[in-house]
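Whiteboard transcription, Tuesday session. T.W. wrote the structure tokens on the left side:
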């Protein structure tokens, strides 16, 4: 398949890496700078994400076309037609879960595959929410097709069984949530991304009430482009659907550790219980990043479509890490230039920091 690289497979990164890189070896060497891929979830999506890169990058395009075939087989529709709908603009809310869920997964995996063509492969992958499914596929913990089918079926199950709700990001300390139970009545804490950024899930009337109060206090906030209250009790699924959250082990041993922002630790098995935890537990992005051994030494590549996690990382890691955090894509366009600048930045970091390992592929 076009752009599949030396391995000849889109669901496996260069085979040279997974033979000798076990979890204990990679976690134990704390003196070496590592490359960390970051995978985000709902709220990072927008119409036309990846469209320009699809036109110019063969590896990226091959992944999207493979994902399109899987989606059409399972869902009987075109994912790319929905993502690249010419009647929609980037400012429109891309919130139809049937399409947005697999689209986020597919963009992140395709970006990782495109980076592998440049010899850039991760030493570990951090997954946030839906991004944990992408991280599992990138790490080879799960097969690409199996993980994508799980994401497609997950979206269908949520749409069929869950009451619609919403999520709002708030730029203030989580102490606000903890200290004012009356203000946040009927809301649940969905994520803590850094010291002054947390997310709540609630019914739409409850979110509207909270947002009115936040405006009166001049507290910045933003409603996320989602129709459901992820990481809260608004996600309620029958056992049969929850069982589908499990991912079968990949055909090869995982190449790299996949860290979970639900567990704040590496995950070695993506069973149904872990999948349910990913959907229902709060995201602990800052705590997860800080739990990575020697986290301040490493370079970070944000694979989320909007570059949201790179912004979060800068706030978590501080000013000294600014030159080692990169976005692979931006909602402001120029996908090809952003991608190439990111590749150059990662390679430049490798040259600047001799501790950064040379690729083995």
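and on the right, the sequence the group agreed on:
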């Amino acid at each position: 398949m076009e752009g599949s690289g030396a391995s000849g497979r889109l669901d496996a990164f260069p085979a040279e890496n997974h033979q000798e890189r076990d979890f204990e070896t990679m976690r134990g060497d704390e003196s070496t700078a590592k490359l960390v891929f970051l995978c985000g979830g709902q709220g990072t999506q927008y119409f036309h994400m990846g469209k320009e890169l699809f036109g110019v990058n063969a590896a990226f395009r091959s992944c999207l076309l493979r994902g399109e075939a899987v989606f059409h087989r399972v869902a009987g529709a075109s994912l790319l037609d929905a993502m690249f709908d010419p009647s929609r603009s980037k400012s429109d809310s891309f919130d139809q879960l049937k399409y947005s869920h697999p689209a986020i997964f597919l963009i992140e995996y395709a970006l990782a595959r495109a980076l592998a063509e440049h010899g850039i492969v991760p030493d570990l992958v951090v997954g946030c929410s839906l991004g944990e499914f992408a991280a599992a596929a990138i790490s080879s913990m799960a097969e690409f097709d199996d993980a994508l089918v799980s994401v497609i079926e997950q979206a269908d199950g949520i749409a069929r069984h869950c009451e619609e709700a919403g999520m709002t990001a708030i730029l203030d300390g989580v102490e606000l949530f903890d200290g004012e139970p009356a203000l946040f009545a009927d809301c649940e804490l969905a994520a803590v991304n850094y010291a002054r950024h947390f997310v709540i899930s609630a019914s739409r009337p409850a979110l509207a009430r909270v947002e009115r109060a936040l405006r009166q206090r001049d507290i910045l906030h933003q409603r996320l482009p989602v129709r459901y209250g992820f990481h809260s009790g608004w996600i309620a699924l029958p056992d049969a659907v929850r069982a589908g959250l499990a991912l079968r082990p990949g055909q090869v041993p995982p190449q790299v550790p996949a860290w979970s922002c639900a567990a704040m630790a590496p995950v070695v098995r993506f069973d149904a219980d872990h999948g349910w935890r990913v959907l229902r537990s709060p995201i602990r992005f800052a705590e997860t990043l800080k739990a990575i051994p020697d986290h301040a030494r490493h370079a970070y590549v944000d694979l989320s479509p909007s570059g949201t996690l790179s912004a979060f990382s800068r706030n978590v890691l501080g000013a000294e890490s600014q030159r080692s955090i990169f976005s692979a894509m931006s909602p402001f366009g120029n996908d090809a230039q952003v991608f190439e600048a990111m590749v150059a930045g990662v390679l430049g970091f490798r040259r600047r920091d001799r501790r950064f390992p040379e690729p083995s592929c």
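Someone added at the bottom: The chain has a mean pLDDT of 87.
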